[in-house]
Amino acid sequence: MKTWYHSWRAALRIARRDAWRYKGRSFLVLAMIALPILGVSALDLTIRSSELSASETVERDLGGADARFSDPEYGGVPIMQSPEGDGYQPKENFDGKPWPDGLTDVKKVIPAGATVLEDAVGSGKLRTTHGLLHTEIRELKAADPMARGIMRLGEGRFPEKSGEVAATTHFLEASGLRIGSKLTARGFDAEYRIVGSYELPSELDADQVNALPGALLAPLDKALKADDLPGTSSSSTYLVNLAGSGSGSGGFTWNMVQEINTKGVVVVSRAVALDPPDRADIALYQEGGWGDYEQSTRAQTTELAAIGTVVGLAMLEICLLAGPAFAVGARRSRRQLGLVGANGGDRHHIRAIVLGGGLVIGVASAVVGTVLAIGLTFALQPLLEDYLGKRFGSFDIRPLELGGIALLAVLTGLLAAIVPAVTSSRQTVLASLTGRRGVRRSSRVLPIVGLIAVAIGAAIALYGSLMTDQFAIVAAGSALAELGVVALTPALVGLFGRIGRWLPLSPRLALRDSVRNRGRTAPAVAAVLAAVAGTVAVSTYTASSDAQQRAEYVPQLPHGAVSVAVTEGSSRDVPAVRDAVQKSLPVDVRADVDRINVGKPSCPMYSDEEGCGQYEVVVPKPNECPLWKEGDRGEELTTAERRKFGKDWRCKDSEVYTYADYGVLVGDAKVLKVLGIKDPEAGKALAEGKAVSFDKRNVNKDGKIGIRAITDVEAADRAREANEELPGDIKSFTAHQAPEGTNAYGMSLIMTPATAKAAGFGTVPFGAYYSTTSLPTTAQQQKLDGEIDKTGTEVNLRIEKGYEAQTDIVLLALTVFAGLITIGAAGIATGLAQADAEADLKTLAAVGAPARVRRTLSGFQCGVVAVMGVLLGSAAGVLPAIGLLLTTRRSEESWYQEALDQGASLATPPYVPIVIPWATVAALLIAVPLGAALLAALVTRSHRTLGRRAAT
Predict the structure, then answer these.
(1) Are 373 and 439 in contact (CB under 8 A)?
(2) Separation between Cα atoms, residue 61 and residue 52, nearest integer Å
(3) Can you give the pLDDT at residue 590?
(4) Phi/psi of residue 872, each to 5°?
(5) What is the Cα–Cα distance from 245 to 526, expressed in whole angstroms?
(6) 3 state DSSP class of 240
(7) Could you tell me which of 150, 542, 621, 764 has the fewest CB atoms within 10 Å of its CB?
(8) List of residues 6+ apart from 176 with CB closer than 8 A
(9) Would you say 564 and 577 are in contact if contact means Cβ atoms under 8 Å apart?
(10) Cα separation of 459 and 461, whole Å?
């Protein structure tokens, strides 16, 4: 060992030999370090592989075209857009003016001589083996070279005739159809033959069929409208190749895109996507609110701080877990280390050998973790793609990133071996060769340092939670406090020893042995502490969040009640949906409800088609919320006025949404019964032809409610933009106002069909409410889903089950994980104890101690370490959770005050409780140490082993 090179070379050879000799211990430490490396490396590979390059993104969107032209429906006014085309807005400021609306003839904007391929998309209900399936219908000549890459052909071929279609693989799986099957649409008699299957690389779960242009959408739309049903709602974009650009090598420059924007058309350009302009040259990004935060230094700094905090805490946990294992190896090799000293090696040679073990294990962990990550990610790529719902662009391996992750493994191995290396180098040669432990004194400085670290860490965490919104500060303070607890561990172990006088023989011997040998006990307790602290922290935060969500939960219906509403498509499907619910669930009372309809009976909700109208509930002027009129009257309210009006009864809204416009429903007294409304006067009012109001803002001083029928939707939109009264006839209803505090679950007004008809309003089926004899089971819900699928209708279904906690499985998983880690750490502690107490065990065997005593002693040694670690870890783990909860409470309080300043009527004071998960702590405190003790006792050798005493 003449030079540092030869010294480290010899140290690494010795370390490699010892690692190979003690394979079990080496595998355990390797697994501790390699598993996190495996997870992080696999995550990096998955994220990078799922991220598409610019060329891959363009291929999936544009195929072989130079650009895609689309209509933003701004009526042709000049626009400005992002380079990707996913963000755009009118160039002119339309504040105080009607927002531009209308179609643009995109074909007139396409340059002369360019090759154009239309891509039309609509939807319809197609017949399947199970019933009807709402499916996207796409008309694109997929076999054209310009479309190559947009759809990936699986089996068969793309359609070549008007009577042929291809379908996505997901659609075939969902529909039960296959290549060669006949396909028909509801409301249309024509048959189409499925000739191929394909997939959309970025939408693997899409239900879509492809036909030639004009083959399906137009005739289906015509047939549906002839039958007074909603049409296909199709829209078109255009793939464009410039003249002379061939396969798309040329294209539209950013200047050309901006020129086309002046004509009101959005352009997604291949050339711009591959070579985007500078941010300063993009007019859209100069407007406020377009991606500013994501690009800011603050956002990047916050992200780096979060990543650094997570990595640092993970390395700390691994070091605390792996450190005792290296201590086991150093203790078992102390005679070998003593021989190194006897042959001229000094302390730094001893440290080099132990550190070499950490380096060898770290390098092996890095290699194994990285190789397994690459192999597993590659093997599981199809499953990952199915889970993410899109194909990877390529299997993207980034050596620098994987190398950095692997370097963390090497660094972690070295850090974990530092303390055992220093401890081993301090032993004398004589003590190492003879196995004497000598008199060991605990450091008097270390507990003081630990106490100071706990105090400073707690102060930092408290400051971070009460004075800032940065959890990184809380995490840093918590980590420092946890390190302080680790430094205090030897002193705390000594305090635990005082309870030994009240324990039976075996646990008393185990406890006193642990106290007497704090050098081996403290690292093992620290390992258990690290595992438990993380679990208690996450469990405390999860339990507290669950309590907060339970307190904030707002039931949408009475417990066990069911509601169903059809807001999309035709009202003709509603009776079938109503019957499906009654057939599948244990219904007690069924209350059908309709909705008011202005215009043709076939008009869907929110439709702006010709012949379709709208309605609105007219709020009397004195009952209008002043906050809603702030912009109309051109005056700015003060913060005090907003806070005042935010609490005004005129500005209170319901927290439950009924899907019906303005919460107006048409039904009978059964609705009141299902919703649990106990007002007897309400039923009498409905029987007398009156409306029943649950929102007193809508009732005027004469006890009547007005509903305006709007037949000219465009005129109404213009009136809204100009803050003018909407056009339309107002129908008045005599109303009964329900008592204050009546919970109608979002319903503001109900009337009978006869009352609506008498006022001149038409009604169409909308849905139903149901009370049940028992809470529907999962099997009944699955049956209902199948029945609804057969109708091919988009249904809004609610089943009120009350608050359902989502954290029980998480807590259970965390408890099991902590148990495994704790047992593993305590197992290492047992190995360390047996290595250090080998002479004592030999003495017990020599004096004739039965195997039961040795097993009991070994089990209690492991159990004592686990109990101390769980107790200290539980105390240490509560701090970061409380800090995070206080940070969350402060953030929510800040948001609440801002909401009050804006006059938010639904703002409620934040409730962020701190809940200690006593069940989890009890499970850790009882089950884990008990399991660790039993396991240690079972694996302890039962036969006597008499060894030769070392010469002294």
Answers:
(1) no
(2) 12
(3) 94
(4) -70, -40
(5) 68
(6) strand
(7) 621
(8) 128, 129, 130
(9) yes
(10) 5
Dihedrals phi, psi of 783, to nearest 5 degrees: -65, -40
The pLDDT assigned to 307 comes to 55
**What is the predicted pLDDT for the residue at 328?**
61
The per-type count for the chain, helices as H runs and strands as E runs, is 29, 22
Q: Mark 399-416 as b/e (b = at least 16 C-beta within 10 Å).
A: eebbeebbebbbbbbbbb
DSSP 769: E
What is the enclosing helix (H) or strand (E) of 132? strand 132-139
Tokens (6 digits) for 468: 């800032």
Tally of residues, the chain: 952
Helical segments of 621-691, H only: 639-646, 669-674, 680-687
Give the DSSP H or E segment for 36: helix 23-50
Give the 3-state secondary structure of residue 38: helix
Classify 231 as helix, strand or coil: coil
Nearest 10 degrees: CA dihedral of 569, 233, 221, 140? -130
**What is d(CA 748, CA 346) in angstroms, rounded to the nearest whole number?**
87
CA dihedral 855, 856, 858, 860 (to 10 degrees): 160
DSSP letter at 603 equals P
Tokens representing 903 are: 């006059």
Secondary structure (H, E, C), 183-215: EEECCEEEEEEEEEEEEECCECCCCEEEECCCC
Joined tokens for residue 555: 């039931």
Give residue 339's pLDDT.
67
Backbone CA torsion sign across 514, 516, 518, 520: negative
The pLDDT tens digits of the residues spanning 878-895 come to: 877 787 788 778 777 777
pLDDT at 257: 92
Query: Coil, strand or helix: which one is 151?
Result: strand
Query: CA angle 532-533-538, nearest 5°?
Result: 100
The C-alpha atoms of residue 299 and residue 569 are separated, in whole angstroms, by: 43
pLDDT, tens only, 830-874: 555 555 556 666 676 777 777 677 677 777 777 787 888 888 888
Name the CA radius of gyration of the chain, rounded: 36
Torsion sign across C-alpha atoms 849, 851, 853, 857: positive
Structure tokens at 549: 């969500």
Q: Judging by DSSP bridges, how do beta strands 67-70 and 266-269 pair with one another? A: antiparallel
DSSP assignment of 766-812: EEEEEEESSPPPHHHHHHHHHHHHHHT---EEEE------S-HHHHH
Enter the DSSP assignment of 604: P
> Where would I find the H helices in 837-943?
838-846, 851-901, 918-939
CB atoms within 10 A of CB 161: 12
SS3 950: coil
> DSSP per residue over 676-712, as a string?
T---HHHHHHHHTT-EEES-GGG--TTSEEEEEEE--
Structure tokens at 550: 């339970």
Q: Which tokens belong to 73?
A: 């429906």
**What span, in angstroms and rounded, lies between the C-alpha atoms of 227 and 911?**
54
C-alpha 877/C-alpha 485 separation (Å) is: 11
The values of phi and psi at residue 729, to 5°, are -85, 140
DSSP-assigned letters across all residues of 451-464: HHHHHHHHHHHHHH
| C-alpha distance from residue 12 to each of 6, 204, 363, 414, 668 (Å) | 10, 51, 12, 13, 86
Residue among 841, 830, 839 nearest 952 (CA): 839
Q: Is 610 exposed, middle or buried (0-12, 13-18, 19+ CB in 10 A)?
A: exposed
> How many C-beta atoms surround the C-beta of residue 517 within 10 A?
18
Model pLDDT, residue 142: 92
Distance CA 354, CA 359 (A): 9
DSSP state for residue 599 in the 8-state scheme = B
- Tokens coding 794: 């988009």
Question: Measured on CA atoms in the order 567, 569, 575, 580, is the torsion positive or negative?
Answer: negative
Which segments of the chain have a pLDDT < 50?
1, 246-249, 292-299, 302, 306, 439, 630, 632-634, 949-952
